[in-house]
Amino acid sequence: MTRSRRWPVPFISVLVVYAVLAGLLASAVPAKDGVRDWTAPLLKGGWMAWTFPTGMFFLTIFALLSLMAVWEYASPGGNPRVGVLRFETTRGDRLFISLLGSAFIHLAWLGLVGPSLWWALALSVVYAIGVFRYV
């Protein structure tokens, strides 16, 4: 069996693990009077404010890195390419640039607009698509 035909199993496995862990994380969200408080701490007295959004953030980063590993296994990156920034990048480099830029987009959004980050998320997805296409 060739490499290109074996990638769907690990790819689907990563997505299933992501969905199961996201469901477990969502079920751990505390409820008060029957209403879930999505920003309440999941661990009382912990060293970090582990809330549902924080957990999903780290879970998503893990899933992206895992999916990148599956993609690299199924179709090795080969030669780096030169994009708009005029330096060579691989897929892993472009993922790192996307994640770093998205962090700065979210921080700027928090500082300039406020705590509602849905538009920052949409802007980050557009930014990541642009990085993977043109960088």
Radius of gyration: 18 Å
Q: Tell me the structural class.
A: mainly alpha
Low-confidence stretches: none
Strand content bin: 5-15%
- Report the mean per-residue pLDDT as an integer: 88
Biggest sheet architecture:
2 strands, antiparallel
Give the tally of β-strands: 4
Alpha-carbon distance between the termini? Answer: 33 Å
Element order: H for helix, E for strand = HHEEHEEHH
Query: How many structural domains can be distinguished in the coordinates?
Result: 2
Large-scale geometry: flat
| Helix residue percentage | 55-70%
What does this structure look like?
This protein is mainly alpha-helical. The chain folds into two domains: 1-76; 80-135. It is 64% helix and 6% strand. It has helices at 3-6, 8-27, 52-74, 91-112, 118-134; strands spanning 31-32, 35-36, 81-82, 88-89. The strands form two sheets. It has a two-stranded antiparallel sheet with strand order 1-2. Strands 3-4 form a two-stranded antiparallel ribbon.
